[in-house]
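Hi Prof. W.,

I finally got the NADPH-dependent 7-cyano-7-deazaguanine reductase prediction working! I wasn't sure whether to trim anything, so I left the full sequence exactly as given:
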Amino acid sequence: MTTKPSKDLETFVNPNPGRDYTIHIEIPEFTCLCPKTGQPDFATINIEYVPDQLCVELKALKLYMWSFREQGAFHEAVTNEILDDIVKATQPNFMRIRAEFNVRGGIYTTVVAEHRNPSWQAPETVTLP
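And this is what came out:
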């Protein structure tokens, strides 16, 4: 088993491709480097997606997230890079990445990026009394 950072995102076949359901993944220990100062930036990355045929494998996702530890990236750029890479690997019906960066210089930053398969129709929301 490898425990080295990797940009390779493995997938597995969605066990219920006929049903829309949401997968929520929380990654509270994300780090990358500030491209201006080289200081570490810390964030919680939340991934929510409705899979189509493939799901992202969690160990591969962990190693993928580790690969950013030595990478300089603006918050906006890294959030969109993560979205693009996971969408490319899984081709989901819908995906939202919410990156909540810790305070730096008295400022918190949250970046939200989304992907929607144009041929997918979201199910109607059910409200229970």
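The chain has a mean pLDDT of 95. Does that look reasonable to you?

Thanks,
D.
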